[in-house]
């Protein structure tokens, strides 16, 4: 079992990473203060892992809130289903919410925990690679709006993150690849040695080698924790975690939530950010090609969907949360292994890049 700590003063919490953690009450009990636990999950994840979690937490008074599965349900209407059941069952501030599922369940449960009776405890139990390496750590919670991805939400940290790597055994290949996009992101933005390791070990990750997966999850969570510790509420450096996301969110909003997986949109977005970084003279064309090679090895898209135009990109990117005083800011690479947030890139380069990708 590997353990990390997210050091945020009185909001600090541990991340446990290992196989078969779900059957051990000791990973859960110290982080549950009251007698009641409401497990929020979905109809896909529940048949795999709900029974095991219920047995492990059998000493608690358990409720189960089962939501429909999918990014298209990550909205206020579905969030309300959580509140409806919590209120119908008369849950108080002492209830702990437990998010059992991928990033959609984690983001919605965290937001529900932030709002229910002005805040209750919550535990992240992520079951996709993407949620294990990214969304369960750092306290970003929320839902989508028709006009923009993750536009309604709150920063709200969990009490603990429990990552059982055995859950990856049931994850579809496409979802594994989507998670690897975020893993590759950490190498690009802040960890060149890890990026080098990924270039050499990507085959092992695709083959689901347990040791390689645990190492990649640990490195990713460690990198993310360090960035979050430096800037919990994203007033600066945390924005580098969004490499490729401004382009990616535009793709997700354009295609309608759920058609492209988040990790797929991020993959294409990272290539677009790398291309612009290259046009800006920061990284070489060979380094862009190396990234394309890595993403293609993982069967991830390296181009946006056909039909999206440069103007549509600009329109959708204008609602990005990084836009400041009407000025578009993008996460760019100033070298492989080091990202910066920039508003000083050349508009001509951006347009040339968008035109290249959209034609
Ligand atoms: P997801 O939650 O939709 O899960 C993907 C699919 O896998 C779903 O169908 C789910 O039911 C299924 N699934 C989950 N675990 C499984 C398992 N072990 N075996 C089989 N199937 C399983 O998607 P995701 O990729 O986990 O998360 C994407 C979401 O995370 C997006 O909404 C994105 O915005 C959000 N996100 C948030 C942050 C953050 O910091 N909060 C960071 C990155 C992404
Ligand atoms: N996934 C981006 C962040 O957590 O800030």
Structure description:
The protein has 359 residues and is α/β, with parallel strands linked by helices. The chain folds into two domains: 2-170, Rossmann fold (3-Layer(aba) Sandwich), CATH 3.40.50.1970; 173-358, Up-down Bundle (Dehydroquinate synthase-like, alpha domain). It has twelve helices and eleven strands. The chain has helices at residues 46-56, 76-88, 103-115, 129-135, 173-190, 192-206, 210-230, 245-255, 262-279, 285-297, 310-317, 347-358, and strands at 2-6, 13-18, 36-42, 61-67, 96-101, 122-126, 140-145, 148-155, 161-164, 330-335, 338-342. It has a four-stranded parallel sheet, with helices on both faces. Helix 1 (46-56) links the parallel strand 3 and strand 4. Helix 5 crosses helix 7 (210-230) and helix 6 (192-206) runs antiparallel to helix 7 (210-230). The longest helix has 21 residues, at 210-230. Glycine binds next to loops. The site of nicotinamide-adenine-dinucleotide (NAD) has 29 residues, from helix 3, helix 4, helix 5 and helix 9.
């Amino acid at each position: 079992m590997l353990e990390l700590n997210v050091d945020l003063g009185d909001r600090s919490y541990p991340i446990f990473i290992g196989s078969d953690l779900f059957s051990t009450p000791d990973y859960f009990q110290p982080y549950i203060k009251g007698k009641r636990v409401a497990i929020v999950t979905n109809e896909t994840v529940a048949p795999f892992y709900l029974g095991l979690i219920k047995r492990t937490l059998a000493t608690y008074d358990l409720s189960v809130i089962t939501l429909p599965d999918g990014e298209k349900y990550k909205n206020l209407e579905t969030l309300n289903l959580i509140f409806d059941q919590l209120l119908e069952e008369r849950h108080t501030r002492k209830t702990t919410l437990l998010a059992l599922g991928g990033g959609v369940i984690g983001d919605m449960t965290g937001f529900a925990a932030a709002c229910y009776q002005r805040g209750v405890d919550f535990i992240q139990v992520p079951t996709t690679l993407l949620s294990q390496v990214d969304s369960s750590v750092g306290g970003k919670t929320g839902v989508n709006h028709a006009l923009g991805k993750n536009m309604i939400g709150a920063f709200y940290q969990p009490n603990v993150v429990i990552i059982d790597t055995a859950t990856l055994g049931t994850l579809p290949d496409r979802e594994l690849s989507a998670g690897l996009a975020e893993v590759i992101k950490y190498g690009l933005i802040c960890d060149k040695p890890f990026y080098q390791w990924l270039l050499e070990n990507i085959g092992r990750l695709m083959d689901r080698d347990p040791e390689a997966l645990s190492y990649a999850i640990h490195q990713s969570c460690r990198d993310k924790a360090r960035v979050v510790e430096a800037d919990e509420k994203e007033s600066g450096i945390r924005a580098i975690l969004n490499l490729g996301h401004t382009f990616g969110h535009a793709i997700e909003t354009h295609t309608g939530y759920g058609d492209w997986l988040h990790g797929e949109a991020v993959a294409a977005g990272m290539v677009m950010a790398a291309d612009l970084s290259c046009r800006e003279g920061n990284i070489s064309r060979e380094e862009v090609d190396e990234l394309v090679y890595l993403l293609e090895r993982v069967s991830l898209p390296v181009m946006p969907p056909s039909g999206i135009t440069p103007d549509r990109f600009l329109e959708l990117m204008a609602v990005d949360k990084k836009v400041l005083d009407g000025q578009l800011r993008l996460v760019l690479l100033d070298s492989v292994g080091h990202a910066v947030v920039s508003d000083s890139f050349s508009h001509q380069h951006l347009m040339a890049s968008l035109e290249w990708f959209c034609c």
